[in-house]
Task: structure prediction
Amino acid sequence: MSAMDGFAEALLDPAQAVPEGLIDPEGRTAGKRFDVYRNNVVASLSRALAEGFPTIQSLVGTEFFNAMAGVYVRAHPPTDPRMMYFGAEMPAFLAAFGPVQHLAYLPDIARLELGLRESYHAGDAQGLTAEVLASLPQDSLEELSFPMVPSARLISSGHPIFLIWTRARDPQASAPVPGGQDILIARPGFDPEPHLLGPGMMAFFTALSLAAPLSEAIAIAAQTASEFDPGQALALALSTEILEVPEVS
Result:
């Protein structure tokens, strides 16, 4: 193990001794100074987690979140200097973290918050609008493929995570009711937002994301849910600009 690796391990493990050779200006082992630095690093990373998962913090409470964040930081320290990637293991961590096992929806809430962050940092692409759609050759429209823009995300959950996420942000919002929900994350402007999907829409957008032609995506969605409304799905896609403009030869 290199000296740098040893320093990094000691930095996140309070049980480890001060790294060898670390001294204060008087030449003494810098135990107290290192402890302060170690605490500051963990506290800083915990704050970064709170900023990245504000809904999780709201649901479990600040005190509990801070304690849990300390456990997470030591189990999953940053591996990339770009903090936008820190916290990627949170869904799996929550699924295995004993004290929150009774909150089975938390991992999916974390997936939603990660999706919002990923969408925010994703690259730009021209989204399909109603005007652009009208300019495409209508006789072959159903045979065209409409891939999703880089900022779009799809999240499926067996829990009512859209309602839970909304209620956590607005106590006056409708209370969650049992049942799974599918969510589309879109970023037509600068800030991404989640949208609750209707029956069959997850299958529809998933098929489009896999380069299926429009007609095939509609057929797949209709097989998945008889209540699927292609008009509503396309209206949502156009209003949120989540589909790329197709290449027309």
User: Anything to note?
Assistant: The mean pLDDT is 90. The chain has eleven helices and three strands. The chain has two domains: 1-103, 125-249. The two ends are 57 Å apart (CA to CA).
